[in-house]
Design goal:
This protein is mostly helical. The chain has one domain. It is 86% helix and 0% strand. Helix 1 runs antiparallel to helix 3, helix 3 packs antiparallel against helix 4 and helix 4 packs antiparallel against helix 6. The longest helix has 27 residues.
Length: 118
């Protein structure tokens, strides 16, 4: 479960970092064009990131509730990893689809490891 815990924490921190960098560099035009929609989207992504960090830390420390929180967080991640690529595909940024695909595959292996261990 070490892989699963580290994976979740790294992805959660990466999500926070990506959104922070995009915000600080002014690369979220939807803040002006669709502020309510993007605010809800960012909130959902931040909640996903925090759940990943909490679930990852919990499985690493062997917390009794860790497996359940981890699996919930991974479900949240899978949802965003399926929905978010559409934004990049619309812009013709096809490499992002590969990144999200790799994230999904790595996440599947992570979940399988947790399910197998528990």
């Amino acid at each position: 479960m070490i892989y699963a815990g580290i994976f979740a924490i790294v992805v959660g921190l990466g999500m926070i970092g990506q959104w922070s960098a995009s915000f600080l560099s002014g690369q979220i035009p939807e803040l002006k064009t669709e502020p309510i929609r993007i605010a809800f989207h960012i909130a959902a992504e931040m909640l996903t990131a925090l759940m990943l960090i909490a679930g990852g830390a919990a499985v690493l420390t062997g917390a009794a509730w860790g497996r359940e929180v981890y699996l919930l967080a991974m479900g949240m991640l899978f949802y965003t990893a399926v929905v978010s690529p559409g934004y990049f595909a619309q812009q013709g940024k096809w490499a992002w689809l590969g990144i999200f695909g790799a994230l999904i595959l790595a996440g599947i292996f992570s979940v399988l490891g947790v399910l197998h261990a528990g």
